[in-house]
UniProtKB/TrEMBL annotation:
Stated name of the protein: Aminotransferase
Pfam families associated with the record: Aminotran_5
Provenance organism: Spirosoma pollinicola
Lineage of producing organism: Bacteria, Pseudomonadati, Bacteroidota, Cytophagia, Cytophagales
InterPro entries hit by this protein: Aminotrans_V_dom (IPR000192), PyrdxlP-dep_Trfase (IPR015424), PyrdxlP-dep_Trfase_major (IPR015421), PyrdxlP-dep_Trfase_small (IPR015422)
Domain Aminotransferase class V stretches: 64-388
Gene3D superfamilies cross-referenced by the UniProt entry: Aspartate Aminotransferase, domain 1 (3.90.1150.10), Type I PLP-dependent aspartate aminotransferase-like (Major domain) (3.40.640.10)
Keywords associated with the record: Aminotransferase, Pyridoxal phosphate, Transferase
Gene Ontology MF terms in the entry: transaminase activity
Length: 398
């Protein structure tokens, strides 16, 4: 339980955000902490003189990062983690291997949640055309509370004709949680694959891979993992062990660290998820930054990040609801999260106008449909929340 944890205090001193900036927008891109910034500077310094670089140095950074990420998601086998450049890359791996899924046949369905991020949607059009599949999209309910009903509709549509389910831990626009354990169990019962885009949750919300038992989990590194852009991580379960990669990187083959034998072309891949690594996955500059970010997150702990953001915003939600805004209630794993919250604005307001007014006062959030996406983290303070409320009171009452 969250109450049993030692509470986090503000971590603002670990960042270099200006004092007059109220950055409540981690879901767009996290600021780099001082430790991540220092890791990047050190990596650049090392790269100015590559003398003494050993073959194993091309692999060692990713090995450490796989281990740290595995700890974060409770994955007992780091060899199931691949280095990817983006969520779209990871989802493309799933689409590429969907024809190999046991029992796949024309007429089956892929289940999506509505208003999902494009990277979780575009991958399936070609797969549907080639395999004769259809897409079923479960849209967000009109009524409040939305979470319980949305979850029930997702569970109800997963049936014997379901080939694949794509669902996030929290919706990227609204912060509504999906009961991944229940969805995972239902998918297994009907023989469907479960692929999860963890980008907007993993690092800030507890994630237990062993309880959920997904087939794939893909996570960009520049949001709640708090690392650099264009570097992400993906878990691929046993269904992908003999699958087809997107590219035939030389590093993904057995004995590829033996540079003096690279001309002895190797038909065998390294085990498990290694074949799905993006080419040049060493990322000599970015990998040390992601390593530093993951070490920091493991120290903070997602449970404590949730507790911190819950307490930080506790008084804000009633104050904003008094202005005619609406917020999804907290309802365990079928309600809203605390690190990413959709604030539905009154019908007479224009979300883009509100976002621009906030930006003018140096308050950063994101407008998504008729909602503001408010995403605090441990670098935020009550002063940031006060600035948000102050500007919204002024703008919404116009």
């Amino acid at each position: 339980m969250l109450t049993a944890l030692t509470p986090l205090l503000t971590q603002k001193d670990k960042f270099t955000l200006p004092e007059d900036i109220h950055y409540l927008n981690c879901a767009t891109r996290s600021p780099l902490s001082r430790s991540v910034e220092q890791a990047g500077h050190a990596a650049i310094q090392r790269d100015t003189n590559p003398f003494g670089l050993r073959p194993d140095d091309f692999f060692s950074g990713a090995i450490r990062v796989r281990t740290l990420f595995s700890q974060l998601i409770n994955n007992p086998d780091p060899e199931r983690i691949a280095v990817v450049p983006s969520v779209s890359y990871g989802m493309a791996v799933v689409a590429r291997n969907l024809p190999n899924k046991p029992g796949i046949e024309a007429g089956q369905r892929i289940v999506l949640v509505g208003s999902e991020f494009p990277s979780d949607v575009y991958a399936w059009d070609r797969a549907c055309d080639e395999l004769g599949l259809a897409i079923t999209t479960i849209n967000v309910p009109d009524e409040f509370p939305k979470g319980p009903l949305w979850n029930e509709r997702v569970l109800d549509v997963i049936g014997p004709d379901t080939a694949l389910v794509i669902v996030p831990p929290v919706h990227w626009m609204y912060g509504i949680r999906f009961d991944l354990e229940a969805i995972g169990q239902r998918a297994r019962e009907v023989g469907a694959w479960l692929a999860i885009d963890g980008t907007q949750a993993i690092g800030a919300l507890p994630f237990d891979l062993e309880k959920i038992q997904p087939d794939a989990v893909i996570c960009a590194g520049y949001k709640w993992l708090m690392g650099p852009y264009s570097l992400g991580l993906a878990y691929f379960g046993s269904a992908f062990d003999e699958g087809t990669p997107l590219e035939e990187g030389w590093m993904n083959r057995l004995d590829s660290n033996q540079f003096h034998r690279l001309m002895d072309y190797q038909p065998i891949y390294r085990p498990k998820a290694y074949r799905y690594n993006v080419g040049e996955h060493s990322h000599f500059l970015q990998m040390p930054m992601l390593e530093a970010a993951l070490e920091q997150l493991l120290d903070w702990q997602p449970e404590r990040i949730q507790a911190y953001t819950e307490e930080l915003m506790r008084d804000a939600w009633p104050a904003l609801e008094s202005l005619g805004c609406r917020v999804e209630p907290v309802n365990e794993n079928r309600g809203r999260s605390h690190h990413l919250v959709g604030l539905w604005l009154p019908d007479h307001t224009n979300p883009m106008t509100v976002q621009q007014a906030l930006q003018a006062e140096k308050v950063s959030v994101s407008a998504r449909a008729q909602a503001l996406r408010i995403t605090p983290h441990v670098y935020n303070t009550p002063e940031d929340v006060d600035a948000l409320i102050r500007v919204l009171r002024k703008v919404i009452n116009l």
